[in-house]
Write a structure and sequence with these properties.
Blueprint (H helix, E strand, L loop, with lengths): L2 H8 L4 E10 L2 E7 L8 E2 L2 E3 L6 H13 L1 E14 L10 E13 L7 E8 L12 H12 L3
Parallel strand pairs: 1-6
Antiparallel strand pairs: 1-2, 1-4, 2-3, 2-7, 5-6
Length: 147
């Protein structure tokens, strides 16, 4: 594929994404992705920021769409960057993950999430997680605990 074809397929700029980390009694809220990229992997709920949307609005919308929960967005935890392995083979994502607190709603999987669950933070080792998720979850868990 020519470089022009790659730009048309994957864009010429990074894609900005947002995610929300929510904890409850030693558990973290995760979604199992139902679509590519990373279909079948457990991930931090989130997605692409829309044009004209603030970061906070994007996190609130994405968490509601994927989990059915309303959240209050808190501190920035991490800026995660996923680069394509080779030019023209995928998108370049920059994802800003925030601590969040549930304010309402009912847990249910929605949008591109196949499943949404509260999972024990100390039991994530055997799950297929999206790249970088384990480290971000651990960092956010320490932040939420005040460490």
């Amino acid at each position: 594929m020519s470089s022009l074809g790659a730009k048309q397929q994957f864009g010429s700029r990074p894609i900005l994404g947002v995610g929300g980390l929510v904890f409850d009694n030693g558990r973290v809220l995760l979604v199992r992705r139902g679509v590519a990229p990373a279909k079948g992997y457990w991930s931090i709920p989130g997605g692409k920021l829309r044009m004209g949307e603030t970061l906070t609005e994007g996190v609130e919308r994405e968490l509601f769409e994927e989990t059915g929960l309303h959240v209050r967005v808190g501190a920035l935890v991490e800026v995660y960057e996923r680069l394509p392995r080779r030019v023209g083979t995928g998108a370049h994502y920059v994802v800003l993950d925030y601590l969040c607190e549930v304010t309402g709603g009912s847990l249910r999987a929605g949008d591109d999430a196949e499943e949404a669950q509260w999972l024990p933070v100390d039991g994530l080792g055997g799950l297929p997680l999206t790249p970088g998720a384990a480290e971000v979850i651990q960092k956010a868990h320490r932040m939420a605990a005040g460490n």
